[in-house]
Amino acid sequence: MSDELDQLTDAEPIKDPGLPAHQHRPTDVDPAQELRAERQITGMFTVASLLLIGFCVAYIMIDKDQTFLGWSAMNFTLGATLGGALLLMGVGIIQWAKKLMGDDEMVELRHPAASTAEERAATLEDLNAGINESGFGRRPLIRRSLFLSMSFLALPTVIMLRDMGPLPYGHKNTVWKKGMRVVNDVAGTPIKPSDLQVGQLVNAEPAIMYEKDKDGEAVLHGTELLQEKSKAAVIVVRMKPEAITPSKGRENWGIDGILCYSKICTHVGCPISLWEQQTHHLLCPCHQSTFDLADNGKVVFGPAHRPLPQLPLALDSEGYLIAVSDFPEVVGPSYPELARDQKRLDDKS
Amino acid sequence: MSTVDERTNIEDTEFGKKAAGPVGWLDDRLGLAGASKRSHLLRKVFPEHWSFMLGEIALWSFVVLLLTGTFLTFWFQPSMAETTYNGSYTPLNGLEMSHAYASTLDISFDVRGGLLIRQIHHWAAALFVAAMIVHMLRVMFTGAYRKPREINWLIGISLMVLGLVEGFAGYSLPDDLLSGTGLRFVDGLLRSIPIVGSYLEYFIFGGEFPGDVIIPRLYMVHILLIPALLLALIGAHMILLVYHKHTQWGGPGRTEKNVVGYPMLPVYAAKAGGFFFVVFGFTALMGAVLQINPIWAYGPYNPSEVTAGSQPDWYMGFVEGAVRIMPNWESTFFNYTWSWNVFFPAAVLPGLFLGVGAAWPFIEQWITGDKREHHLLERPRNAPFRTAFIVAAMTAYGVLWIGGGNDIIATKFHLSLNAITWFCRIGLFVLPVVTFMITKRICIGLQRADANRILHGYETGVIERSPDGGFTERHAPLPVGSQYSLTNHDRLPVLEAPPETDHNGVAAPHSRMAKLRAKAREIYYDGSVDKPTVEDVHHAEEHLRDHDGHPVELGDEFQGVSESGVPRVH
């Protein structure tokens, strides 16, 4: 091996001239420079101390509503004093190392990462002694049954995770049902067709989101409200009736060009809100899936696969928009059992 | 500067005399002096190069994260229970929100210095991942992952993956509109996992999205599970670094068998220790003047709202881009829905990036058949295939990143969103090939330039006119140290076709594998320029010396003008 290496070295076009001679720094040879560096570094540490005192003063003195050049004065002063002090300390220490500490390079020899043959042999011998004394090799029955119980240890580990959450059954329908009013999602007020102009889009929710029970408490609140919102949020849009090309069976799902679609993107569930009046396209701000609302919510661009589910509309006796039923299609992002759930919905209708 | 003569021995100083007792007490029980002597730790030599500092940035920003993160836990409440906000930020007063969001608002507006620490924490997180990635690129470009450091490379990959998950978990905790949008994406990703997707979604979110347990669970992951793993792996990373000793650049006196540099005590202890303060100070200044994640501007999470231009933190940008530019493929078979449009870009593709990255040292070793230890770094130009491969991977990453910002680019530059998306879809496959070829040619060109500088010297800037009127530039030989540095790398192996048959004339076993390997090796070394041989150099020296009778000798003291950065002093 070493012969081989020597041969290789011989074949090198340029011989290693060895480490270059050490060059002294100005601070090594000039006492004035040395003193200057010492003062600089001491200066940095001193200013750092002052800044840290300034930090405490600012903490106590500055009112948290005060502003400075548009920043929060507190945030700026605390950050500037702390950051400045830390930087000066760091730079000072590094300057000390670079200018004043010994700068003679040292050479350390490397050793192969592997253990030597003797070390390996000795360790192997210890290992063999231990294994033989344990009888690990001679008692296969014990050994195998131990492995068996060890592998069974995985079972409780996995089964204990069962109560992390419920099983994913029966939660795919939304709170929409026959006769529920479509209400504006800011004020919760019901919507009349006359409230909407052609080209207008309104974010809406099912009326139950704003209903109160007899004690004056919201029927849906907290987590439950968020869960229902993440499925039931809709957009109501009015287009020219002649622009709309409803597919078979959807001819009477709108009122005078007013259609209602799920607001939840079928890609990964972002609420869709960017509306292009001219093209009737609705664009998802998260991943730019684009749906054509005049053409049954069909995907025209982007990573979403399924069209936006449409909610069939009707008018109640007071002339407000209501739902005819829940969505006839699954809303939200796809999931493995979607095909089955969709089939069940189709069978129902 | 101190020589042995002027040394003061610590045991003779006043401090030393006072400390001797306690230190002796400790050594009686811990044997510290012996451990230190055996590992040679106090005077351990570290080589010096600016690029060795990148990993240090990652290390110190992690320490900054631990310190600032601990401070934030004193006030943050990881609860999704409902509360009505009534704090200093009046625009949100009276609004229903989770305790997580409300307590983050309190940290930002009511705890003095809370906003600063929050911003330092977020900036340090962005810096942590950035420094890890740049450090990894340094290691890749210089071949520092080669034997015996493959395990440390794998530890590094694990650290990076954990860093990404840790960052994402932290990003989700404040329960503001933006972090909720991120979680909604995770929900969609979980659902897209074939067959078990819905189960994973319900188990992780504790029911239907968003549920009320995801933030407490992520909090545990963010402040306990992953930090503990990160700490353990960083410890292992450092121990292996000390055991293997740091790689170094080759040069005069710097060989495969030694490491040349400054000792841990005092120089590296001071430089590295000082650098911690620099990193902390830098992130503190960023926290002071650069706003990051102003959660009060987004409002509490509401699944029916989103802001246009929603973006994840920068390190998730490539996944975001992949998700955006993926065609909308979804299929139904075996009565199951398979959402390739989400599963492929968000799960398979990042896995592919990391898998190839993790396997690369072993793939390269298989191709080159090189089983030796390497402690000298390889200049990127001297491994053209590797360098071009990394640049191709970076290009793919960059294209995905552009895809992740396609809406911002479209609005800022008034371009068509669809055109940008299509550019990325095609560019993801075409541009890496283009940059691969360009990079490889550049590397080979640089190799040739190196050979040229060894054989023909460097350009002195001295223009000579010949008797017949021609102008030429005088070349002078490089200093021998520079010549040595340029040739201090492996010679190219001789490529041989594998034998079709063994010595008995029977078809050789594994011959198909051997052929594949020979082919791979051919591609790997294709075009590489070998360094000059002894004869080449000898020949060139004569040529340079006897260059058709220069009228003026340059002499040994000549300090030529060099535009190429070659040291002028010989």
Automatic annotation (TrEMBL), chain A:
Domain (Rieske) ranges: 253-322
Principal localisation: membrane
Record-linked InterPro entries: QcrA_N, Rieske_2Fe-2S, Rieske_2Fe-2S_sf, Rieske_Fe-S_prot, Rieske_Fe-S_prot_C
Membrane topology of this protein: Multi-pass membrane protein
Annotated CDD domains: Rieske
Transmembrane segments: 41-62, 68-91
GO molecular function, one term: 2 iron, 2 sulfur cluster binding
Region Disordered, residue ranges: 1-30
Keyword annotations from UniProtKB, A to Z: 2Fe-2S, Cell membrane, Disulfide bond, Electron transport, Iron, Iron-sulfur, Membrane, Metal-binding, Oxidoreductase, Respiratory chain, Transmembrane, Transmembrane helix, Transport
Signal sequence extent: none
Cellular compartments per GO CC: plasma membrane
Cofactor(s) needed by this chain: [2Fe-2S] cluster
Family: Belongs to the Rieske iron-sulfur protein family.
Protein role: Iron-sulfur subunit of the cytochrome bc1 complex, an essential component of the respiratory electron transport chain required for ATP synthesis. The bc1 complex catalyzes the oxidation of menaquinol and the reduction of cytochrome c in the respiratory chain. The bc1 complex operates through a Q-cycle mechanism that couples electron transfer to generation of the proton gradient that drives ATP synthesis.
Protein name: Cytochrome bc1 complex Rieske iron-sulfur subunit
From TrEMBL, chain B:
Reaction equations catalysed: a quinol + 2 Fe(III)-[cytochrome c](out) = a quinone + 2 Fe(II)-[cytochrome c](out) + 2 H(+)(out)
EC number of the protein: 7.1.1.8
TM annotation in the entry: 57-76, 120-141, 153-173, 219-244, 265-292, 342-363, 383-403, 415-438
Region of interest (Disordered), residue spans: 542-570
Any one GO cellular component localisation term in the record: plasma membrane
Cofactor: heme
SUPFAM superfamilies xrefs: Transmembrane di-heme cytochromes
Domain (Cytochrome b/b6 N-terminal region profile) ranges: 22-250
Enzyme class: translocase
Protein name stated in the entry: Cytochrome bc1 complex cytochrome b subunit
Lineage per the UniProt record: Bacteria, Bacillati, Actinomycetota, Actinomycetes, Propionibacteriales
